[in-house]
Amino acid sequence: MVVPVSEMVVVKGEFPFQLGKVPSVGTRLTAENGIITFEGAGISAWADIPAGVLARITEGTKGVLQNPNGKEIQVEVIGIKADDPTTGVSGAVNMASTERQPIPEEWLGQDLLAILTLQTVDEESLIVATRALSVTATGEQIAKQQTDGSFTLIEVEELGEIGGQSAIRVPEGIELNEGDKVKVD
What we know:
By secondary structure, the chain is mostly beta strands. The protein is 2% helix and 38% strand. The protein has one helix at residues 51-54; strands at 18-21, 37-39, 45-49, 62-66, 72-81, 91-97, 113-116, 126-129, 133-136, 139-145, 151-162, 165-169.
């Protein structure tokens, strides 16, 4: 068998490589779409994702991969495979380590937990129980307990809520810090 040079791909670099993206079968190749990408050395992990969640994930989404013993590695999404409604096959994401070390080989074949950060509300927000917020005509308030046991109402801005926890922003000059006690109704 003779393969013409025009049909060959030469890859230079540090091995091993993993095939990342290739044009779909049957695609008419052009200079724009005739590109093969390779992922760097190391192991990547795939996770099945329900379609409703998959729509909110993009390449570069950060997260954590955790083994059954609780050891974690920081990862990011490097590829997305869409779900197929005709076959019922769910979509998936491909994740690779963002740390200097790759995903350990001893993790191969283990059930791993993938935790992806879909939304970062505010890096400097405080987290409180949603039930601690009181809605007023002018916004949200929170009742902060003073050292004498009394409560002071503080205007805050709710940035987001999930699972009964709210991220809040406190206006400049108002003292509400991590560890302060607030009233929960």
